[in-house]
Amino acid sequence: MAHLHITSWVIAFALVGLVTTFARSGNDKGAKISHMILRADYLLILYSGGSLFASYANYGGLIIFKVLVGLWTIAAMEMACVKYKKKKPAAIWWAQLLIAGAIAIILGFGFLGAGILPAK
């Protein structure tokens, strides 16, 4: 399940780039389609993350924090895309996306090692 989760969030980050590229070039239809695909990918992230959550029961509060940071990352992705498409200030959402994404990746790979990394 870790591979599915990692693949889905890598696709999500690529889709965020695609949404902003289409929006910047004025291709509203392409931006809308890629944004809807991104929203479907959120469901895949939530499903695989929920499955991983069940397998990390022995981590206690750390896994709860990781879930909250993951939800924060998804919210920041969505808000950054929406604000960017509407041509409204989105810098705070981009900053939150970078911060939350970095924290989620550090927690996932650095502290919750039951995923794809070899055992220590």
TrEMBL record:
Residue intervals passing through the bilayer: 6-24, 36-57, 94-117
Record's keyword terms, sorted: Cell membrane, Membrane, Transmembrane, Transmembrane helix
One Pfam family it belongs to: DUF1516
Stored InterPro entries: UPF0344
Protein name, entry field: Uncharacterized protein
Taxonomic classification: Bacteria, Bacillati, Bacillota, Bacilli, Bacillales
